[in-house]
Write a structure and sequence with these properties.
Elements lengths: L3 H4 L10 H10 L12 H5 L51 H4 L2 H4 L9 H4 L7 H8 L3 H12 L1
Amino acid sequence: IVNWRTTLKFPEEAKLSPEAKDLICRLLCNVEQRLGTKGADEIKAHAWFEGTEWDKLYQMKAAFMPEVNDELDTQNFEKFEEADKQTEPSSKAGPWRKMLPSKDINFVGYTYKNYEIVDENVIPGIGKFIFLSNINVSVCHSLFVRVCL
């Protein structure tokens, strides 16, 4: 959706009407041209919704009623082949990766920076200090709080 201008393609097998394509394109565009910018009535008036009785919508019978047996029933979703449960870690990952619980593997390489403390406007020179000293930002914050209080 972010790069819709270059990535949005309507496959032939989708057999979308010109009205459906227009609706999609007018919803995925710059806000100035976006359908609905002037309110919901603008969307309701689009040609794709022609014949829709908006004031009777809640009384109308649904076009499709999915059969649902319980809250975990997924029979109405497409079936996808399961990906391998465990993939072998790459040799580049190192032996430490095997020691991590599987839930932590998703965060390998993730870093967090507290830009408030690193902000040069808050503490002039702090960014260079942290970089040159290779100090942990939280340690730096603690030092800053102690010095300033």
